[in-house]
C-alpha cells in the first residue's frame, strides 16, 4: 500500500480535491476496528446544528420531485425545496463524513462516506437508515450510484469497488481490473446517456462498463492527473461526457467514454465538480472558489468569477434553471 500523506491544512478536508486526510485514514489498523466495537466516535446519530447550512458539504443531488439533498461533515444532511432555504434531515444515524448521495425517484435515495457507511432513505431524505458500516477500519466510499431500487455500486480508495443487488442491504467486492490499474483511487461513478457506466479515477484512468458493471475496461484518457468528476448528457444523439480534475484539466468524450480529447480551461486551479445546467450549458467549480462555464457542450470554457476562497465541492442545477447552486467547505455558498 502506498504511504499515507500528511494533512496540513483546512483545505485538505475537501473530497476529493485533496486526498491527504483520506489517505491517512486508509492506514488505520486493526486496533481502531476493535475500538469501533466499543463505541466509535462517529457511531452516533448526527446532531441538529444551529448553523447547519455552514457545515462543510461534499456532495449534492436533486430528487425527481425537485428537492435538493446535500451531504457533508458530521453526518449533516441538508434539504431544500427551493434552493434558498435549507434545513437538516430529521434523523441520520451517523456522525461520519458523508461524501456522496444519489436518488432514483422523489423518495428513494442513498448516501455514503467515511467508515464505509451507506445510508438509505425512503421519504425524500427526512429519515435515514444505516445499511453498512465499518467504523474504525476507515475505508471511505467516495461515490455511490444506483440504477434502480436494487442494483448499485460504490467506489473509493485503492481500487475499492462494491456492488449490491438488494438495494444496499448486502455488498460484494468487485475487481475492476488487474495490473497497475487495480489499486487506483476511484472518485466518481457516472451513467452516460446510453446507460454505460464510467468511473473517474486516479492518473487519468476511466473505467468503463457497457453491461451494468459486470465487466470493465480501463480507458487511458490521455490525462495524467486524477479525474474527480464528470457530467454526462446527450448532444445531437451522441453520448457525451465532460470530466474535470487536477490542475484545471478538462477532457471531453463524444463517443460514450471510449476516447477523450483535452479541453482548455483557462485555470490551473483543480476542479472538483461539474454539472449540466441546460442543454449545452455546463458549470464547473473547484479550488479557490473557481467557477467555469461552457455554452457549447464542454468544447470551450470561460473563467467566470470566484465564489470566495473556500473550495467548491459540489455544483447543482438550481430549481427553475436559474444558474447553479454551490456548496463548499463553508457550506451553502450561493443561491439564485
Summarize the structure.
With 336 residues, the chain is mainly beta. Helix content is 4%, strand content 40%.
Mean pLDDT: 88
Spatial strand arrangement across the major sheet: 1-2-3-4
Report the structural category: mainly beta
Major sheet details = 4 strands, antiparallel
Helix coverage percent of residues? under 10%
Extended strand count:
27
Q: What percentage of amino acids are in beta strands?
A: 35-45%
Number of H- or I-type helical stretches:
2
Termini gap: 45 Å
The CATH homologous superfamily is named: YVTN repeat-like/Quinoprotein amine dehydrogenase
CATH class: Mainly Beta
| Unreliable parts | 1-38
Signal peptide: 1-35
Keywords: Photosynthesis, Photosystem II, Signal
Pfam family, one: PSII_BNR
Protein name: BNR/Asp-box repeat protein
Give a verbal description of the structure.
With 336 residues, the chain is mostly beta strands. The N and C termini lie far apart (45 Å). The relative contact order is 0.12. It is built from two helices and 27 strands. Helix content is 4%, strand content 40%. It has one domain (13-334): Methylamine Dehydrogenase, Chain H, CATH 2.130.10.10.
Top keywords for this entry?
four-stranded antiparallel beta sheet; mainly beta; 336 residues; signal; WD40/YVTN_repeat-like_dom_sf; disordered N terminus; Methylamine Dehydrogenase, Chain H; photosynthesis; 2 helices; photosystem ii; 4% helix; single chain; BNR/Asp-box repeat protein
Amino acid at each position: 500500500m502506498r504511504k499515507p500523506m500528511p494533512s496540513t491544512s483546512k483545505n485538505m478536508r475537501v473530497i476529493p480535491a485533496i486526498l491527504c486526510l483520506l489517505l491517512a485514514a486508509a492506514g488505520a489498523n486493526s486496533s481502531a476496528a476493535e475500538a469501533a466495537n466499543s463505541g466509535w466516535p462517529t457511531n452516533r446519530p448526527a446532531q441538529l446544528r444551529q448553523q447547519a447550512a455552514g457545515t462543510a458539504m461534499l456532495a449534492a443531488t436533486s430528487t425527481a420531485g425537485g428537492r435538493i439533498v446535500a451531504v457533508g461533515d458530521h453526518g449533516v444532511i441538508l434539504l431544500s425545496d427551493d434552493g434558498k432555504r435549507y434545513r437538516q434531515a430529521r434523523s441520520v444515524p451517523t456522525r461520519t463524513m458523508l461524501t456522496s448521495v444519489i436518488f432514483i425517484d422523489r423518495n428513494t435515495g442513498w448516501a455514503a462516506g467515511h467508515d464505509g457507511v451507506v445510508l438509505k432513505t425512503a421519504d425524500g431524505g427526512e429519515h435515514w437508515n444505516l445499511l453498512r458500516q465499518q467504523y474504525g477500519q476507515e475505508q471511505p466510499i467516495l461515490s455511490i450510484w444506483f440504477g434502480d431500487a436494487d442494483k448499485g455500486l460504490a467506489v473509493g480508495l485503492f481500487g475499492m469497488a462494491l456492488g449490491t443487488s438488494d438495494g444496499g442491504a448486502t455488498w460484494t467486492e468487485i475487481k475492476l481490473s488487474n495490473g497497475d490499474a487495480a489499486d487506483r483511487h476511484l472518485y466518481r461513478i457516472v451513467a452516460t446517456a446510453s446507460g454505460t457506466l464510467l468511473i473517474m479515477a486516479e492518473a487519468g484512468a476511466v473505467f468503463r462498463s457497457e453491461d451494468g458493471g459486470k465487466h470493465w475496461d480501463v480507458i487511458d484518457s490521455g490525462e495524467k492527473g486524477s479525474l474527480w468528476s464528470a457530467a454526462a448528457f446527450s448532444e445531437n444523439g451522441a453520448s457525451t461526457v465532460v470530466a474535470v480534475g487536477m490542475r484545471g484539466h478538462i477532457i471531453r468524450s463524444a463517443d460514450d467514454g471510449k476516447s477523450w480529447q483535452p479541453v482548455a480551461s483557462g485555470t490551473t486551479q483543480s476542479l472538483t465538480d461539474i454539472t449540466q445546467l441546460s442543454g449545452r450549458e455546463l458549470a464547473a467549480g473547484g479550488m479557490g472558489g473557481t467557477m467555469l462555464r461552457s455554452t457549447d457542450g464542454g468544447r470551450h470554457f470561460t473563467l467566470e468569477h470566484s465564489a470566495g476562497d473556500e473550495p467548491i465541492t459540489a455544483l447543482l442545477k438550481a430549481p427553475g434553471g436559474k444558474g447553479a447552486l454551490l456548496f463548499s467547505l463553508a457550506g451553502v455558498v450561493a443561491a439564485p
